[in-house]
Amino acid sequence: MDELWKQSAIDLLDEAYVSPEYEHTWFKDNDPDSSLIPSFRSLTAEDAERKPVVGRNAVAGHAVHLATSLEGAAIAMRGGPYAVDWEKSWEFPRPLTQAAWEEICDRLERAYLDVRGIVAANTDWSNPIYSKSVQALLAHAAYHLGSIRQIAADRLPRA
User: Fold this and answer.
1) Number of domains in the chain
2) What is the pTM of this model?
3) CATH number of the domain that residue 120 is part of
C-alpha cells in the first residue's frame, strides 16, 4: 500500500506543479501549460506583479508563497522545525524585474523537485509528518492553482 500511496502522491504533485502528459487528470485541465510552474512561466514579470483586485495577492505572491511552503515542508520532512513566516511568504521584489520573476519561478521549481525527491525516497508513510504533509501540500497546490488560473483568465491579457 505504501508504494501505491507514494506513487499516487508523486503523480498528483507532478500534476499540480509540472503538467506532464496525462491521458486523464484528477483536478486540473489537461492542457500542457495548466500546472503551476508552466502557468507561472507563461507570464511576464509585469503580469505576475499586477494585483488582480485591491486587497488580493498578485500572481508573483502566490509563487513565492508556494515556494516558501514547499521549502518549509522539506525542512520538516528532513526532521527540522516547520517554521514559516506566512505573512512574509507573500513578499516579492517590487518593481518585479523579468530576472527576479524568473528566479522566483526557478525557486519554486527547485522547491517542488526537492519535495518530490523526499516523497520518492520515503519508505514510511505511517509518520504523519510525511503523510499529512503531502496531503496538505497537494490541497494547497490545488487551491493556488485554481486561484492563479482564475486571475490569469479574468485579469491578465491572453498571449
Assistant:
1) 1
2) 0.89
3) 1.20.120
